[in-house]
Amino acid sequence: QFSRTAARLPKLPMTIGWLESAFLTFLTSLLSLHVLTAASKPTAPTNLSATALSSSQIKVTWKDNSNNEQQFYMERSTNNFKSITQFILSATVTAYTDTNLAASKTYNYRVRARNSSGYSVYSNTGSATTLPSGPPLVPGNLTATPTASTQIRLSWQDTSNNEQQFRLERSTNGFLDIIELVFADNVTTCTDSNLVPGISYDYRLHACNGTGCSAYGNVVRTNTGTISTWTPLFQGIDHASGATSIGVSPTQKVQILRVDLTAPGIQVMTTPRAENYIPESSETIGLTTSHFLLTHGLQAAINGQWFAPCCSDVDGTPEEIWGMALSSNIVVSSQESNTFSATMLFSQDNVPAIIGTNWPSIQPAGIWTAVSGKNPILYRGNYAGTNDTVAPRTAIGISEDKRYLFMLTIDGRQAGYSDGASDLDTAAWFRTCGTFDAAMLDGGGSTTMAISDGMGGATLLNRPIHNNLPGTERPVGNHLGIYALLLPTATPGTVAAAAPAEASAPQETRLNPRLPTITDFKISHAASGASLLRLRGKPDYTFTLQYNEQGNAEIWGMLTTGRFDESGVFEFVDKNPEPGRTYRALVP
Fold this sequence. Notes:
Elements: H1 18-38, E1 46-52, E2 58-63, E3 71-77, E4 85-90, E5 95-98, E6 106-115, E7 118-119, E8 126-129, E9 140-148, E10 151-157, E11 165-171, E12 179-184, E13 189-192, E14 201-209, E15 212-213, E16 220-222, E17 225-227, E18 231-234, E19 237-244, E20 253-260, E21 267-270, E22 284-285, H2 289-295, E23 300-303, E24 307-308, E25 318-321, E26 325-327, E27 330-333, E28 342-346, E29 352-355, E30 369-373, E31 375-379, E32 382-383, E33 393-398, E34 404-410, H3 423-432, E35 437-440, E36 449-452, E37 458-460, E38 479-483, E39 493-498, E40 518-525, E41 531-537, E42 542-548, E43 557-563, E44 569-574, E45 582-587
Antiparallel strand pairs: 1-2, 2-5, 3-4, 3-6, 6-7, 6-8, 9-10, 10-13, 11-12, 11-14, 14-15, 14-16, 17-19, 18-19, 19-20, 20-34, 21-38, 22-25, 23-36, 23-38, 24-25, 26-27, 26-30, 28-29, 28-30, 31-32, 31-35, 33-34, 33-35, 36-37, 39-45, 40-41, 41-44, 42-43, 42-45
């Protein structure tokens, strides 16, 4: 050890000059500083912690609180430091991974700093237990809950303390092919996104570490929505309906028409010019989708692109169409900007194409039919939308081989029935049926899908919401319609229930049980003379109610368009029926 006494200098002659005196003063100060520094021990490290990394490794970290240490001495013990293993580490080290340890064993660690003056006191003690050897245990209780049309929430129980990751596998074909999702240790929940409604997904999970993986846990299956099989309505036109699963938000009721553009008799049509045509002012005349279908003798139709003014309660308003529109090679509306420029084109022989942004506009030569929407939502099978707003939707798409045209509606603004959809939701339903490119048309209260009832009338497949009135159609400025031939075996699905001229008690008449769409039809008569019609059948299925008062089966009047609710019930009050009025319900 050094001290001020030990550093005392010998006496010097008194005759030294001022320069020698200054040098000796400096030397004395420097030697005193060295003596003081050399006498200082390092400050003890703090915040030591130990963490097991595997069955054979523990990582130890600490905080360096001094700037004069020359080494760190770390000690490991399994018996409260009665015996130790010592590690000598450089002054810059504040973390060390201890290896070659025994599995499932507890190790204690402490560290102290050292320099030439000696050791600091010890840090705090840290302990860790190495993980068990071998693969982790099987994870438990895997669950899957659909939360949106494109999302499933998964959770599981972590039963091990030696996993390094969880591997979640998803499959749609019994795990012949899988998508693997990898998560870090201790994770017990995740959300699987970018899914497609109408497809059942199987999930299984195992835990893994450096020595291998556990066995798989339980397998769960769920879907975000269901879609029916395709049902032929006309030659070349098939129909399917879909709905989100219970618990999914937003709720969605979906109608899809698949049109085979190569089928005999198929022709595509959009709304023609108004009789007194004025560009950018009076380009078309507003009609409900049903009236458009009936006016032109079509078999299927949906509302088309945006228009103004909106929104009349009656047909006949002159309308300006937004975006490019052609009908039978005649320009109805020109593309005026890059807005509302997602355009679907058809040649005269039904070859389709979609232009995501039709600006500068394509020339109309060679185009037979064109309809435009606000934006693309699928491009080459990948999502291309941007709108997250949930609302009623109408959209169109084509298959990759351009054989099929898809026409889709999703009802909305009807709490408890169907909330609506975003661009992402709509694209997901399209992907369910094999759509490759797709674009969004006008939606909201305009969303409507109608088909011919085969009896000179129109049937709504969806439930429109014009002016917030469920089942009410909006006259719109543009439509997309399809001509098709009837099915070779098509016969109207007709059933009847007759009410006697006078009745003192309620009377009931059942429908033909051979028609599974409608399973029950009852008529009750009130004292006021009104008739209550109550039908049961396939939930969400649309039909038309007609009446006959002359006893002539060929003369039927239109009473209303009906749609079964989610429980399969429809009720209608005929307030002033003529005595002996007969009713029937027609299904597509």
